[in-house]
Amino acid sequence: MKSRNLASLALVLSLVACASSKSPTAGNPPPPPPQVPSAPRLESKPIDVSLRAAARAELLAQCASTDPFLRCNAIEALGEVSPNDAAAPIASGLSDSQAPVRFASALAAGQTQLKSVYPRLLAMSDDADLRVQAAVRYALHRLGDTRFSHDLEKLAADPDFKVRAATAQVLGLLGEPSAANILDKLMSDPSAPVRIQAAESLWRLGDQRGFEALLAYSISIFPDDQIIALQALAEPRNPRALQQLRSELTEVYPEVSLAAARGLGMLGSDEGWTVAMSGAKSVEPRQRALAALAMGAIGRCDLQAPLATLLKDPEPTVRISAATAMLQLHGPSQVAGD
Question: pLDDT by residue (tens digit) across 86-120?
Fold first, then answer.
């Protein structure tokens, strides 16, 4: 999560002030919220196999990037949308010199239950980075080796908030109801990133406390908190989040409305179509990347054209998002040869 400086806080306050100056006079009802135009009627198109191939090639290329941030993103994306292509990058990433890449690779190994890397994961149980240790314990647990799982309780109490946040994340991914007791304590953590992650993990476990906390974060004055909270609300694919996601489609910050569009897509709604299409034309790379992810979540086959453009974007983060999205689209029928 990015830090919030005084300038960004001032921007928030100035926008609030502007909104207040245009508010209706006392006694008059507030105006209705602006309406987002509906998505166009689905134009059924077969999935372009060459675009899928280009998307896979982009993600595989970024797994070998000199930028560890891009390597992390690409490995995570492959594990999610193309697990058959992820084995080699995951195995390589587990030996990466950068801890964040090893962390992402261990998570991907657990999510894909990649048995071939079990010996390597076992050797990493005492990795120098405690966040990596947490991810390794998650992966080993998913592969059936629960001998180290109890260590997560100790890691959840580590003095470093980054270790506590990583542990809260893997506790949610494990899907074990018994983790709720640890996560409940982390909901009162002095660090905001830890509290948000604990709330997300509790909501993954179906815990109402996590849902309510995420609702509060989704209306935070900090846009980054809102973005994370909206994504977290949508992760369990529970329709209870629909109303809040819809309400954020018209948020003043484009990044927040794009996160809402993606969340709605994850819940099977294309209501964020217009928001995503607009974001894809933004001059800001972050907005174009979020727009691509929203398109992928929406998943409609008639989003291939804008994603094809974003696959050629000059910014690698945008290309990774577009490639991820392209592999999430579903066509009217099975794609031959795909």
Answer: 999 999 999 999 999 999 999 999 999 999 999 99
Q: Could you give the CA distance from residue 247 to residue 203 in angstroms, rounded to a whole number?
A: 20
Asked whether residue 145 is domain-assigned, the answer is: no
Look up the pTM and report it: 0.87
Task: Say which amino acid occupies 124.
Answer: M
Cα 96 to Cα 36, 63, 100, 146, 240: the distances in Å are 44, 11, 9, 24, 40
CATH number at residue 313: 1.25.10.10
Residue 315 lies in a domain: yes
Residue 29, in any domain of the structure: no
Range of the domain at 258: 226-330
Beta-carbon contacts of 41 under 8 Å, excluding residues fewer than 6 positions away, are: none
**C-beta of residue 72 within 8 angstroms of C-beta of residue 101:** yes
Q: Residue 330 pairs with which residues in a beta bridge? A: 300
**In total, how many domains does the chain have?**
1
Listed in sequence order, the residues at least 6 apart from 185 whose beta carbon sits closer than 8 Å to its beta carbon are 156
Question: Is residue 170 within 8 Å of residue 152, measured between CB atoms?
Answer: yes
Model confidence pLDDT, tens digit, residues 244-289: 999 999 999 999 999 999 999 999 999 999 999 999 999 999 999 9
Phi, psi of 332 (to 5 degrees): -70, -20
Distance of CA 175 to the CA centre of its chain: 17
Residue 312 falls inside a structural domain: yes
Do 78 and 85 touch, CB atoms closer than 8 A? yes
Show the tokens assigned to 198.
């604990």
